Structures are given as C-alpha cells and as structure tokens.
Amino acid sequence: MLMFSVKLIKRMPPALLLLLLLVLRPSGLRAQTDEDAIMMTKNNFCIGGVYGYSSWKNYWEGTFKRNNANLGTVSTKMVSLMGTYGVNRKFNVVIGAPYISTHPSAGVLHGMKGIQDLSLWLKWLALEEKGNGTFSVYALGGASIPLTNYIADYLPMAIGLHSKTLSGRVIVDYQQGNLFATASGTYTWRSNITVDETSYYTTEIHYTNQVQMPDFWSLNFRTGYRSDRLIAEATVSKMTTIGGFDIRKNGMPFPSNQMNSTMVGADFKYTFKAVTGLSLVGGGNTTVDGRNVGQATGFDLGVFYVLDFSHKTKKAVSPSTKTK
After folding, report:
1. 28, 93, 210, 263: least CB-packed within 10 angstroms?
2. Is 59 helix (H, G, I), strand (E, B) or coil?
3. Count of CA atoms in the C-beta half-sphere (13 A) of 316
C-alpha cells in the first residue's frame, strides 16, 4: 500500500503536498506547560491527555494562495499524552508524545498513522518581582526525538519530519490582579534527516540521501484572564523557517521547504472545585497568513489531573494560578 501511495504522490500535480506537514504539528501540546507562565508545585505531577483536530482546504504555494481539488480537505487527528513534574517551585520537567493520523477527503491517497516524536522541556523560573503586579521571566530548554521509524519524505501523508530538535525559549510574563500578558520567543535547531532516495533536487541537485533541515524560530503572545479556577486567553503565534525554499510549480514537495505561518486563537483552562486537581483545557486556532503552508483551522480538548507525591497530608494543588 505504501509503494502504491508513493507512486501516486509522484504523479500528483502542483506541489501542495508538503502543506499537510504544518497541520501535523501537535498543536494540542500548547494547551498548558511549555508556553505558559505556570509552574507546578514541588513533587506534584500533572498528567493528562489531549485530543486535537485540524484541517485545511486552501493553502499558500510560496505566497500564492490556491486550492487543490485532488486532495479535497486534508485533516489530521491527534491524541497526545503529556505530563509536568514539579522538581521544586522554580524548576519543572515537561514531557509529551502524540499519536497522529492523517486523511484527505478526495482522491485516491491513503492516510498514515502512528506515534510521532517524544518531546522534553526543562522549565526554570529565573526571575520573579512583585509590586503592584508580578513580573516573571522563565528560561526553557527543549528537545525532541522520533519514537518510530515513520517516513518523512513521502508527502503529504507523513506524520512528521523525523528530525531531532533542540530548542531554547524565553518567556516574559506580567500579571496584575487577574489580568495578564505573556510573550515568548523560541529558536529550534533541527538535525539532518535521511531519505530513501539516493539523490534529490531542491534549487539544485544533491547526490546524497542526507537532507539538511532548516532551523526555525517562533514568537508567541497571549493575554487574558487568569485566576485559581479559570484561565481564558487570546493567542497570536508566528513561525518562520530560517532558510529552505518554496514549493516549485508542478514539482514535488520536500521536507526542507520553507514553511512560515501566523496563527490566532483562544485557549481556556477550568479547574474543578468538586474534584481537587482535576482540570479541563481546550482551545482553537486558525492560520491567517503563511508561505508554503495550509490555511489550517483546528481545536483541541484535554483533561488533566494533579498527583501529589510529597507524602504530606495536604491535597494536590492545581497549577491554575501563575506560580505556586
């Protein structure tokens, strides 16, 4: 079935095929932890699952917006398991891994499914100043590694790019009363990947099966209401690939294409009063501008529970306020 799909991909017209990859990014992982200004209490472990759905019909080929009836609506479903452990009040460990499946609504291509990449973040509260409000700075280091030998270079059905990554992030947060604003910047290095072909063409011919993946940086801004029980926020995020190239007219897509996007959305988190440590998270977003990406719209919904390993008589504390 895979070889049959590959042959069909090579006969597909315009190079929209790469665009599915943007949808494959596990957006549900942003529901809490590695992009927010919340820290887990010492010896508390917050664990949960997130379901996400994303789809696109229109896309940008370079900067030219178009669609492709051969694929119809391309959708991605994701189920992710993730957790955050509080080593102490100022240092947390965040881990997660998604299971992803893809599906086009038209044509004869078959979707793919499987476990994607394991991600790990170390989160440090570097500075906290309290006055009329609270000003905080967080420093994070992250890494990811593929968990399975999924195929990256036969698009659009690949569930990921199969590249190892290292990331550095700085988060700045200000909260006054229940109102807050958070801004963050991230730089991500990506390793080379190995493809099945012995040669390939980008803007020139390469006689190798090693593909140099471009790094990328991203910016994120969120603002809204934050209390012990409820967090409601509006978000704006921008991703820019450092290098890469545009999908060529009537050509094949390729993992090292340039993929830029600007997305807007909204998230929430509600902590239940009746069950200490239980919370519901969710949100949605849409792509408003891009380059070589689909105009994707998606949502995610998850449930989390805080386990207390402090061996004390007090109950687990939910990380719904800014810091504990």
Report:
1. 210
2. strand
3. 24
Give the Cα separation of 300 and 78 in Å (integer): 9
Query: How many angstroms separate the CA atoms of 122 and 15, rounded?
Result: 38
Tokens standing for 198?
């012995």
The residue with tokens 């992250």 is: 142
Sign of the dihedral defined by the CA atoms of residues 244, 123, 36, 121, in that order: positive
Query: Phi and psi dihedrals of 21, rounded to 5?
Result: -60, -35
For residue 3, the one-letter residue type is M
d(CA 281, CA 32): 8
Report the residue count for the chain: 324
Strand duo 179-190 + 165-176: pairing: antiparallel
| Tens place of pLDDT per residue across the chain (324 aa) | 333 334 443 444 444 343 433 333 333 333 346 889 999 999 999 999 999 999 999 988 999 998 888 889 999 999 999 999 999 999 999 999 999 999 999 988 888 999 999 999 999 999 999 999 999 999 999 999 999 999 998 777 889 999 999 999 999 999 999 999 999 999 999 999 999 889 998 989 999 999 999 999 999 999 999 999 999 999 999 999 999 999 888 666 789 999 999 999 999 999 999 999 999 999 999 999 999 999 999 999 999 999 999 875 455 555 645 544
Of 264, 266, 267, 268, the residue nearest 237 (C-alpha): 264
Q: Are 101 and 53 in contact (CB under 8 A)?
A: no
pTM, two decimal places: 0.86
Q: How far apart are CA 249 and CA 243, in angstroms?
A: 19
Both structure tokens of 321: 């306020």
* Nearest by Cα to 35 from 190, 167, 170, 134: 170
Sequence-separated contacts (24+) of 127-134 with Cβ below 8 Å: 128/323, 132/176, 133/174, 133/175, 133/176, 133/177, 134/173, 134/174, 134/175, 134/176, 134/322, 134/323
Encoded amino acid at 221, one letter: F
